[in-house]
Amino acid sequence: VVRMSDDPKKMEFTRSVLFDFHGVQMTKYFTENWEKIQNFQARPDDILIATYPKAGTTWVSVILDLLYFGKTAPERHTSIPIYERVPFLEITFPSMDSGVDLAENLATTPRLIKTHLPIQFVPKSFWEQNCKIVYVARNAKDNMVSYFHMDRMTLTQPDPGDWNTYLHRFMEGKVLFGSWYDHVNNWWKKKQTYSKLHYMFYEDMIEDTGREIDKLCFFLGLSPSAEEKNQIMYGVQFDNMKKNDMTNYSTFHVMDFKISTFMRKGEVGDWKNHFTVAQNEEFEEDYKKRMTDHTLQFRTEV
Ligand code: A3P
User: pTM here?
Assistant: First the structure.
């Protein structure tokens, strides 16, 4: 049992254990509320931010929050944690409002809602209401590195083990929310038929954040002024998000920042500091077999 003594709500957490949940590895903190999650009533103007964990969810969440509310309610950015501005639909932690409750109680329009669910688990009302969805994907190797450090420092996540163990677990989909390969591929497939899905890449955001914000605005039908866009660009620079306690998760007490940080590196290519040559060869050989849709291409350097 982990007791976060500095936690005002005195929450108690344990490292969770993965189990097979309809073919996907999940933990209790994301399945306990399953019926409520599945019955969530989306509204037509809700915007769903969908990602595999560690693909750049927070970055895009802050961008969307600033695009919609930065002008009318700029104080949000420095006074409300991002996980309250953009609730995490499937999370159910003890002594905390569930993601569904937070989402239902959002007073803003549109409601911005985050999910890591593989596509087959998305509540059906999002499809029925024809909601806009922003999906962010990140290359597997950097995604895995980021997830490894996240699992090390987040005391409610399954124990990641050492790096080599983790690498093999990731390749087998034995991590929370299951296979990265299935996640990115199935969401990509959906994009071909569902026009309200905007599929973005972390690497593109690193290469040219302004260009990616422009594409996002086009998709959302927004046209911020040059000044508003500059303010957003400034607010979402890695160093500024790292300094901002409302975006850096320092208020989220299940993370031990002595082990790692949430705003850790924010780069493309950190995988090179983790993979051995042999691990990279093994990974690449497996990757080729599993990523057969060549219209979906990731960059591992920018
Ligand atoms: P690293 O661990 O590689 O640094 P998510 O929000 O999906 O959990 O993703 C977290 C990852 O996105 C972390 O990656 C984090 O540093 C990175 N990230 C968050 N904000 C960023 C920003 N403004 N610019 C670049 N990377 C960012």
Answer: 0.96
Mutate which of 52, 57, 59 for ligand 1 pocket (most atoms within 8 A of beta carbon): 59
User: Candidates 153, 166, 176, 263: which one to mutate for ligand 1, based on the most atoms within 8 Å of Cβ?
Assistant: 263
Ligand 1 binding pocket (C-beta < 6 A) is 51, 53-59, 142, 146, 149, 236, 238, 241, 263-266, 270
Residue 52 is classified by DSSP as: -
Q: How large is the ipTM? A: 1.00
pLDDT in tens, the chain (302 residues): 444 445 545 556 789 999 999 999 999 999 999 999 999 999 999 999 999 999 999 999 999 999 999 999 999 999 999 999 999 999 998 878 999 999 999 999 999 999 999 999 999 999 999 999 999 999 999 999 999 999 999 999 999 999 999 999 999 999 999 999 999 999 999 999 999 999 999 999 999 999 999 999 999 999 999 999 999 999 999 999 999 999 999 998 899 999 999 999 999 999 999 999 999 999 999 999 999 999 999 999 99
The whole-angstrom separation of Cα 144 and Cα 199 is 19
Helix (H) or strand (E) holding 137: strand 132-137
Calpha distance 111→48 (Å, rounded) = 8
Is the preceding omega at residue 160 within 30 degrees of 0, hence cis?
A: no
In 3D, which of 297, 241, 244 has the Cα closest to residue 265? 241
